[in-house]
Amino acid sequence: MTVTLDDPCQSSSLPKPADDEVALLLQTVWDLLSGGDHWPSYRTVDRLLYRERRMSVDEVIARTPTVLLLGGRPEGGASPRPDGQLSLTVAGAAASAGSELALVVFLATVRLAAEAELQPVPNGEDPTVTFDDAAAAAYPPLAPEVAARVARQSGLLLHPEPWTGHVLLYQSGWKVAVDRRVRPYAGVADLGAYWRVREQQRGASTAQEEPPTRGATATTGSGGRVIELARRWEIGERLGSGGFGTVYRAAGEDGTQAAAKLVPKVPGADREMLFAELGGVRNVVPIIDSGETDNAWVLVMPLAERSLQDHLAASGPLPVAEALVILRDVAAALADLAARTARVVHRDIKPANVLLLDGAWCLADFGISRYAEASTAPDTHKYSMSPPYAAPERWRAERATAAADVYAVGIMAHELLSGRRPFPGPGGEDYREQHLHVEPPRLEGAPPRLAALIEECLYKPPQARPSPANLAARLERASDAGQSPGAAALAAAYQRESGRAAERGVAVSRARTEEQRRAELAESAKRSLDGISDHLLDVVVDAVPAKVQHRPEIKWTVELGSARFEFWAATPFDGRAWGGWDRPPFDVVAFATISIAMPADRYRYEGRSHSLYFCDAREEGSYAWYETAFMVSPLMGERGRQNPFALDPGEAAAKALWPGVAEYQVAWPFTELVVGDLEEFVDRWMGWFAAAVEGRLAHPSQMPERNAVGTWRRQ
User: Superfamily assignment of 218-302 in CATH?
Assistant: First the structure.
């Protein structure tokens, strides 16, 4: 397998930067990704390029096509992300020097994914490819010391690709679920070939779908377009869109009125056909005919009276009795689906997918939800679901189970009874925060037993929600009709306890999300610090033939003469262990130490050390490595053997960062360490090391050594 960056076929070659500034923008984004950031923020790139090159990133992004870069300002050429982050596409990575290994792994992933999708899929599950699979199939093989870096880079490149589903990034690796749109990529050997297929598929998927007018199974009759399946259907007016296709009114030869869904034959869309047969399941819209034309798969279903979405729009909140009829019908369908030997999870329950048919409210669009689970938007899989109804585990990219359908029923129940959804959004990140961390409002006016059941459906932990069968059974007796006073009082007490359980679930979900967030940030911190320490070590060993040692807790130790220069590895921090003292106004995710030691001089001075904190010292939520150092307050009348000195996050550091007076103070300003802009940092420490080797390193002439006031944010 080779990586070809310049395809001789100009009409289908990989896009190239329009000018040198666009190329520099892409290279900067790539460098930041390589340094450990998940996706760099627009602000970070803007600050870096303006400081170094006096480049206006707004102007450069306006010249950058979205096939190279996603994100940026809304007025720019690259499509904006709501969080202002920048993400390279595979074409953008191909234009960046140093990305070859990540692209080799990317292509190996494509090949493995296409081969997996061409094989029978057990239980209808999406095949997956892991980083270890791709790394083993890549050529040249990856050295262990670069594997972690390449894992991060290649995993991020997979996000914008249309055939990827869940892309789960974790420490030193990733796992990606793929859908059938990857099949045409089987056998691609280089990026030029990959890009030709990608553009062909993009053109096919964006072409406007029309009902077929010719072909082996489609003809034109006197009354309009006709499709020959097991039966003959005349296609009429367009009724709307659903999932991957378009729905038309259809009439059979015997006068049967139906709805025909035409799904264009683009890769992956045939998942619509997976659930054509669900015999024995109550309250599911049946398929009365199916087949294909030259350019589309076709599903014919009975013509429903209306959707629940239309019903709600016309009527607003529903009486309890009417809402219970709808919820019982939906729950019965879920219970039957969960009881099947091959269990089916709908994954996209919402009012638009609940249709009134022959007096029953029925679930529709199983293929849509199956396909949506295997698809992803350009930035992340989460936008492929229906955000107002998506369970917390969907936002965490976890595998959906029947509990996710139960959660969606809980959202829908709120909407039926109150006229509004419990989580209003309106944006994707708003929905994510609300579903993960916000307790739903109390459902006023509903019978206590029903209100408590709906609260259970909306518990954050999926294991705490009722099963579909339990939900169906409890809905049958949820109206509280005929309850004795004692039973009604017990039901009300149960509702209050359910509310307390929901509060606990919110706390657990918030803690889990925070733990995940901190773990991802800590991994980014480690990778970023590796780049900083490796750069400093390269400069040292280039300058002198010093002895270098490595230990697990210390990145490296350089000894020259009687002086010792050490750079400690990054250590994750839980954000809580401040020793009972007031925590600082910023969040520390990881820390490390850099130090120079020497034999004590006549003043008992033995060297200096600085702390490195990965934190959001300047701007909330914007994390970077910051260098700082500490001192004992002059009021204590002490002068340590090491000045200034490092402090790990804890009570002593909290005292120094406290706005009041304590025995410790900050002796060095919080100074951001930016990969690519480390000259002052490296030169300063090289100078101190040289002084220590010669015995000239001494107590600073003044303390604090540099003014640190205002270099970190206050409350």
Answer: Phosphorylase Kinase; domain 1 (3.30.200.20)
